[in-house]
Amino acid sequence: MGLFDRVSRVIRSNLNAAVSSAEDPEKILEQAIIDMQEDLVQMRQAVASAIASQKRIQQQHERAQAEANTWHQRAQLALQKGNEELAREALSRKKAQAETASSLKAQLDQQSGQVEQLKHNLIALEGKISEAKTKKDMLRARASAAKANEQLQSTMGRLGTSSAMGAFERMEDKIMQMEARSQAAAELAGADLESQFAALEAGGDVDAELAAMKAQLSGGSVDQASLPEGETSQQQPTDENVDAELEELKSQLDQL
């Protein structure tokens, strides 16, 4: 392979790559529609010109045919008048006009076929343009959706690695830590409150039991609701045992 061929291939490949990268689908589709519209205008002009030519040939054919008929009638008139020479001349003119009319008829038939073909091509081109417009709108919508999705993915990719996204993640962790500390403090405060009430409730039981015992020693009665569960007011057998138990209870209360 020669150097010139290699250089030519490199240049062509670079040009193709540059053109491909520069192609905007929406702009290319729009330009394609414009080109097709221009072709449609030219096609319509060609059809109009062909129809005009067809009508002109048809008029020429009709005139030639009319002239041939006229010369035929003149030949008949001359023959009726006994002028055979004039009748011959009229028939000669008729023949020339008839040949012209026949030639024009052949051209007219050919022109009519061309006009019909041009009309068919025109209708086909109009259908293709209509289809292309519909397809262009669909492809444009798909291209716009693809661009939007590409931009979205690019934005999401940048957010995943950007400092702003990292700041959001750090703040979320910090808030979670603050919430955990607040919850722990609330649990500790609740536990301390429970312990205080438990101490108060325990002290009330002891006071109630002590009051009940004093009432028994004095020989009085005590409300059954104020006694601890499972106990009733009863007279102790001997004062010595009561005094001993009372002293023991006082000692236990002093140690609390």
Overview of this protein structure:
The protein has 256 residues and is mostly helical. The chain folds into 2 domains: 10-156; 178-255, no CATH class. It contains 5 helices and no strands. The chain has helices spanning 3-22, 25-80, 84-161, 163-217, 239-255. α2 packs antiparallel against α3. Residues 221-237 have low confidence and may be disordered.
Computed Rg: 60 Å
Order of helical and strand elements: HHHHH
Unreliable segments (pLDDT under 50, ≥5 consecutive)?
Answer: 221-237
First-last Cα distance? 111 Å
Q: Keyphrases for this structure?
A:
256 residues; mainly alpha; 2 domains; 5 helices; 88% helix; 0% strand; rod-shaped; coiled coil; Phage shock protein A; PspA_VIPP1
What's the SSE blueprint?
Blueprint: H1 3-22, H2 25-80, H3 84-161, H4 163-217, H5 239-255
Helix pairs in contact: 2-3
Summarize the model shown.
The protein is mainly alpha-helical and 256 residues long.
